[in-house]
Amino acid sequence: MTGEPVDSDMHIDLTGRTALVTGSTSGIGHAIATSFAGAGARVVVNGRDETRTREAAARIRDETGNPEVHPVAADVGTEEGAEKIISAEPDVDILVNNAGIFAPQPVFEIPDAEWRRFFEVNVLSGVRLARHHTPRMAGRGWGRVIFISSDSAVMPPTEMVHYGMTKTAQVAVSRGMAQSVKGTGVTVNSVLPGPTLTPGVEQFITSLVGDDIPFAEAERRFIAESRPTSLLGRLIRPEEVANLVLYVSSEYASATTGAALRADGGVIPTLIP
Q1: Cα dihedral 96→101→107→108 (10° resolution)
Q2: If phi over 0 gives left and psi between -120 and 50 gives alpha, with beta otherwise, what is residue 69?
Q3: What would the DSSP string read from start to end of 185-196?
Q4: Which residue in 56, 88, 145, 262 could disulfide with 25, CB within 3.0 to 4.6 Å?
């Protein structure tokens, strides 16, 4: 036998924990923040715009009835933004590095500045926050760090190679950090969503397929033509990704660390990512 026995009646309770979710004013990040608030955590909602961040926090408070949902507006894709959010919330128990950007562009036309911008926002944002918070979690003997990567980490999309590069880097960073805090009670993992119905993805699909057809049909065509390996046969919903993140952030996932966990709807056609 290993570890401590856990009640088989699984109920995730994050009461007493503080969770920071970057990029949580909409989409996957908002769903994750909502799931944490519903589980009783004190939640820090983050976005770049002050008004949007405040409104997102208010929606989560209203939806969950949890008053401990606090907005911190900061651009974590910059050193200054990372320092701002660290100063506002110097100690958290759960860090979800979700902030990110994507955009299609032919690979041979991507200038140096775009490669750097994507790396700053998608990779260094999480590195900066994890570099501060992870050692502090280890000192307290418990913590959860999660990088929201993508199926693009394993299957680089031809239309946005620079995005895929950053998602692969997140998996490598996550594994390396997990190795660096072994035996401390802190776990570090990456979660790989597949194509998910967020406002940004909806806009992306519409631009590819066209806005002259109902979105349900555009979704079907996109999955059939651009993501034919999907076993789900549809876009993933943000709440479905949030469910996995909530579990990984809980006591029940104490033996899961250094892992790349798929919430990809079966898009990745391999046994192990």
Answers
A1: -120
A2: beta
A3: TEEEEEEEE-SB
A4: 56
Collapsing DSSP states into helix, strand and coil, what is residue 143? strand
Inter-residue contact 167 to 148 (CB < 8 Å): no
Q: Tens-of-pLDDT digits for all 273 residues of the chain? A: 455 555 557 799 999 999 999 999 999 999 999 999 999 999 999 999 999 999 999 999 999 999 999 999 999 999 999 999 999 999 999 999 999 999 999 999 999 999 999 999 999 999 999 999 999 999 999 999 999 999 999 999 999 999 999 999 999 999 999 999 999 999 999 999 999 999 989 988 988 888 888 999 999 999 999 999 999 999 999 999 999 999 999 999 999 999 999 999 999 999 886
User: Domain spanning 18-194+237-262: which CATH class is it, in words?
Assistant: alpha beta
Which of the residues are catalytic? 163
Half-sphere exposure of 43 (CA within 13 A, CB side): 37
Count the residues in the chain.
Answer: 273
Pairing of strands 42-47, 18-21: parallel
β-strands 260-263, 186-193: how paired?
Answer: parallel
Structure tokens at 70: 């606090």
Q: Where do the domains of the chain lie?
A: 18-194+237-262, 197-235
